[in-house]
Amino acid sequence: MPEILKNAADEIRREELPELKSLCKWLVYGTISGLIIGLIGTFFHLCSSSAEFFREQHPWVLFFLPLAGAAIAMFYDAMNYSHDKGTNLVLLAVRDNKVMGIHHAVCIFVAAVITHLFGGSSGREGASLQIGAALGSFTGRKLKFNEHDKRIMTMCCMSAMFAAVFGTPAAAALFSMEVVSVGIFYYSAIVPCAAAALTASWVSSRFGISHIAVSVTFPSADPVSFLRVAVLGALCALLSVVFCASMSGTLKLFRHIKNHMLRAAAGGALVVLLTLAAGDQTYNGTGGAFIVSAFSERPFVLAFAVKLIFTVITLGSGYKGGEIFPVFFIGSAFGSVMSAVLGLPLSAGAAVGMISLFCGVTNCPVASFVLGIELFGSGGLPFCLLACAVSYMLSGYRGLYSEQRIVYSKRRTKYINKRIGDEK
Predict the structure, then answer these.
(1) For a Cys-Cys bond, which of 104, 311, 327, 338 suits 121, CB 3.0-4.6 Å?
(2) Which domains are seen in the chain, by residue range?
(3) H or E element that contains 419
């Protein structure tokens, strides 16, 4: 018996003790990161929201958008960061340990606020991922982490920043672990990502940061309803391909203007002209108020297409921010309109459209599904699951981030490890 107990104790010391130490270590780092990043994310949310509010109260600010674009380009030059890879660098920081630092966080923070202030069509979640990843990469180097722990720290801070800005901690933690290499979850980061996201979300809530809050009526869970939701998921997959192709094509088109200050100014001028044609500033900024309204009131039939055009011009010409909130706008508007055609409740159509389009452009079905549950409640669980599954499979091998890799085929249990946009 003593020999058995001794062997058991040796086994625990050899196998369990290192795991316990790692758990405690990452709970501490995750919680501390959540507290700090939560404050930074709250500040970023307040700055960008205040910028949008100021523009809404002073619409004439929009006419300075071309100058603001040139100023952003000049600012990036001054910071020696003119060749910014955007969110693609975030993916490389996790997968290949590419270096990000404070200068990246400062650049995207300032540029995103300027974009929102002057009426560019962009979101804040993409910017928050870049800020979080930059701070995580910087912290990992300062703490002299090994290359594996640096990657984990980067994902940890990404989760915290996303959760602070958007208020969905479970989706934030999962998204950071899923988006880099689709088909592989970086489970080694699950404890710090969860701890950081939950803490950061709590911090932002203490400051009264409010997020999307809507009431959704889902249909009964029967075969006809599932068929309707599957069709909407398939249509959103097609829309995701259109959005990603439009983004890629617009980027290439604007690159014909070699001077990046002139490029941004030209894009800003186009947005100003489009806004005058639209008659108001519905399609400028994040469009948060519109997203909420799409769940209770059917929007203009082509509102989703107009927002898509505003967004690809804004981001394609060099303004900063993110694509995710515009995707929510486009998806909720499209789903709301299509609900009348498919016979779904309006709010359910908006919810399914929003989540399935997000899934299609990010190739993150698990995070998208969980996001749907966090935003719309457990009543939508089967519909969000089905819509995300259909959208993921039918969206092909396109996506918002060219450095994203899809490790396993969407149609077979086959290892493919291909980058977004590569030929099949």
Answers:
(1) 311
(2) 10-206 (1.10.3080.10), 223-419 (1.10.3080.10)
(3) strand 415-419
